[in-house]
C-alpha cells in the first residue's frame, strides 16, 4: 500500500510529479491556448468581476492560499486577502456580495474552514472551494469549486495536497488573467508551457534526496531552525517550517527574509541552521545579502538555489539545486527539498512520520 516506500509521506512526496499533472490534465489545453475549469467557466462573470477574493483556510492549505495571493494579484489583478478560517469566522468580518470567498481544504472537513464559508454564504458572498476529497463537506457546501485530484493523502503532514492546491489556483489565476486581459496572450501561453514542464522538474528536484539525507544527518540535533524566503517563496518558508515542526518536533520559524533584521536575527549563532530559498527569479540579490547577514553572524546556511548557481554556493554550507522556472511556479519546486528535509530529520530522530503526536489528518472540531 505504501508502494515500496517506508512511509506514506515519502510516497506522497514522490507522487507529486503525477499529482500535479493529474491536476492540470484535461484542464490545461496547451495547443489550443485554453484552460477549462467548469467551476470557473460556469461562473466566470461572478468570479472575474469580484471586487476582492478572500481566501480562508488552515495550516498548510493557508500557506497555499498565501502563494495564491501572489499569483492571483499578479496575474488577475484582483485584490486578495488570506485569512485563517478560525480568526475570520469570529471577527465579525466585512463580507459583501461582491466578494468571492475561496476555501482551500485538502480533507474538505476542517471545522473552522466550514464555519467560515457558512458565514460568507450568509453574507451573500460567492464561495469557491478547492478541495482534494471528492464529495467532502466543504466541497458540497460551496457554490462552485475545483478539485485538486491529488489522490488520497494519508500522511498527516500535507505534501502533494499543497503543490496541487497551488497548481489549481495558478490555473484559476491564469484563466482569470486571460479573461480580464490582465496578462498578454503570449505570457499566458508561456505560463502554460512552463506548467507543463513542472512535473519533470519536480522529478529532478526529488533527486536531491541523497544530499538532503546528508544535510538532515548534520542538523537533526538542532533545537531551532529558521526558514527564510521572499515573494512567492515566503509562504514556502512558512510551509517548510511547519513541516519540520509537525513531524520532527524541532522548533522552526518561517519568515520573510527581510523581516529577519526586525527580530529573528537575534537568534542566529553558530548552532542555528537557517534554510534560505534563494532561487534566481525574484529578489535574488536581496536574498543573497540576507545570506551574507546570516553568515557574518555564523549561522549555518542551507540554501535552495537555481541549478547552476555560483554566488550562493560560495556563501552557504549546503546548496540544494532545483531546476529553473518562472518565478510564479518556483514554489512547486522549492517546496520539494523542504518536504524531504523534514521527512529525513524526523525518520533519523525515530519519530512517527505518518502519525505525528497530537495531530489528526482532518480537524473536524474547532
Ligand atoms: C499540515 C497539516 C495541517 C492541515 C490543516 C488543514 O501538514 O496537515 O496543517 O493543512 O489542518 O487541513 P485541510 O487542508 O484538510 O483543511
TrEMBL record:
<dbReference type="GO" id="GO:0006047">
    <property type="term" value="P:UDP-N-acetylglucosamine metabolic process"/>
</dbReference>
<dbReference type="GO" id="GO:0046349">
    <property type="term" value="P:amino sugar biosynthetic process"/>
</dbReference>
<comment type="subunit">
    <text>Homodimer.</text>
</comment>
<feature type="domain" description="SIS">
    <location>
        <begin position="43"/>
        <end position="182"/>
    </location>
</feature>
<keyword id="KW-0808">Transferase</keyword>
<comment type="function">
    <text>Catalyzes the first step in hexosamine metabolism, converting fructose-6P into glucosamine-6P using glutamine as a nitrogen source.</text>
</comment>
<keyword id="KW-0315">Glutamine amidotransferase</keyword>
<dbReference type="GO" id="GO:0006487">
    <property type="term" value="P:protein N-linked glycosylation"/>
</dbReference>
<feature type="active site" description="For Fru-6P isomerization activity">
    <location>
        <position position="361"/>
    </location>
</feature>
<keyword id="KW-0963">Cytoplasm</keyword>
<dbReference type="GO" id="GO:0006002">
    <property type="term" value="P:fructose 6-phosphate metabolic process"/>
</dbReference>
<dbReference type="GO" id="GO:0004360">
    <property type="term" value="F:glutamine-fructose-6-phosphate transaminase (isomerizing) activity"/>
</dbReference>
<dbReference type="GO" id="GO:0005975">
    <property type="term" value="P:carbohydrate metabolic process"/>
</dbReference>
<feature type="domain" description="SIS">
    <location>
        <begin position="215"/>
        <end position="356"/>
    </location>
</feature>
<dbReference type="GO" id="GO:0005829">
    <property type="term" value="C:cytosol"/>
</dbReference>
<dbReference type="GO" id="GO:0097367">
    <property type="term" value="F:carbohydrate derivative binding"/>
</dbReference>
<keyword id="KW-0032">Aminotransferase</keyword>
<keyword id="KW-0677">Repeat</keyword>
<protein>
    <recommendedName>
        <fullName>Glutamine--fructose-6-phosphate aminotransferase [isomerizing]</fullName>
        <ecNumber>2.6.1.16</ecNumber>
    </recommendedName>
</protein>
Amino acid at each position: 500500500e505504501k508502494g515500496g516506500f517506508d512511509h506514506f509521506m515519502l510516497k506522497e512526496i514522490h507522487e507529486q510529479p503525477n499529482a500535479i499533472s493529474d491536476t492540470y490534465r484535461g484542464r490545461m489545453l496547451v495547443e489550443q491556448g485554453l484552460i477549462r475549469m467548469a467551476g470557473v467557466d460556469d461562473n466566470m462573470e461572478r468570479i472575474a468581476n469580484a471586487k476582492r477574493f478572500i481566501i480562508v483556510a488552515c495550516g498548510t492549505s493557508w500557506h497555499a492560499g498565501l502563494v495564491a495571493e501572489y499569483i492571483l494579484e499578479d496575474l488577475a489583478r484582483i485584490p486578495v486577502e488570506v485569512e485563517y478560517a478560525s480568526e475570520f469566522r469570529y471577527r465579525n468580518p466585512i463580507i459583501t456580495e461582491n466578494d468571492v470567498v475561496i476555501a482551500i481544504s485538502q480533507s474538505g472537513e476542517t471545522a473552522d474552514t466550514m464555519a467560515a464559508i457558512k458565514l460568507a454564504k450568509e453574507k451573500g458572498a460567492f464561495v469557491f472551494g478547492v478541495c482534494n476529497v471528492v464529495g467532502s463537506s466543504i466541497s458540497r457546501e460551496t457554490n462552485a469549486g475545483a478539485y485538486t485530484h491529488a489522490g488520497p493523502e494519508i500522511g498527516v503532514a500535507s505534501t502533494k495536497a499543497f503543490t496541487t492546491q497551488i497548481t489549481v489556483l495558478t490555473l484559476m489565476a491564469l484563466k482569470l488573467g486571460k479573461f480580464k486581459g490582465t496578462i498578454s496572450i503570449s505570457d499566458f501561453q508561456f505560463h502554460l508551457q512552463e506548467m507543463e514542464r513542472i512535473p519533470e522538474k519536480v522529478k529532478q528536484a526529488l533527486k536531491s534526496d541523497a544530499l538532503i539525507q546528508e544535510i538532515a544527518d548534520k542538523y537533526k540535533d538542532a533545537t531551532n531552525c529558521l526558514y527564510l524566503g521572499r515573494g512567492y517563496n515566503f509562504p514556502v518558508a512558512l510551509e517548510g517550517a511547519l513541516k519540520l515542526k509537525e513531524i520532527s518536533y524541532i522548533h522552526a520559524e518561517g519568515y520573510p527574509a527581510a523581516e529577519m533584521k526586525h527580530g529573528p536575527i537575534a537568534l542566529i549563532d553558530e548552532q542555528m541552521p537557517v534554510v534560505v530559498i534563494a532561487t534566481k527569479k525574484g529578489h535574488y540579490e536581496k536574498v543573497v545579502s540576507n545570506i551574507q547577514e546570516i553568515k557574518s553572524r555564523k549561522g549555518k546556511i542551507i540554501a535552495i538555489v537555481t541549478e547552476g548557481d555560483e554566488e550562493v554556493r560560495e556563501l552557504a554550507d549546503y546548496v540544494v539545486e532545483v531546476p529553473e522556472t518562472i518565478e510564479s511556479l518556483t514554489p512547486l519546486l522549492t517546496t520539494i527539498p523542504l518536504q524531504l528535509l523534514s521527512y529525513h530529520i524526523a525518520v533519523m530522530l525515530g519519530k512517527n512520520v505518518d502519525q505525528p503526536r497530537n495531530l489528526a489528518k482532518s480537524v473536524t472540531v474547532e
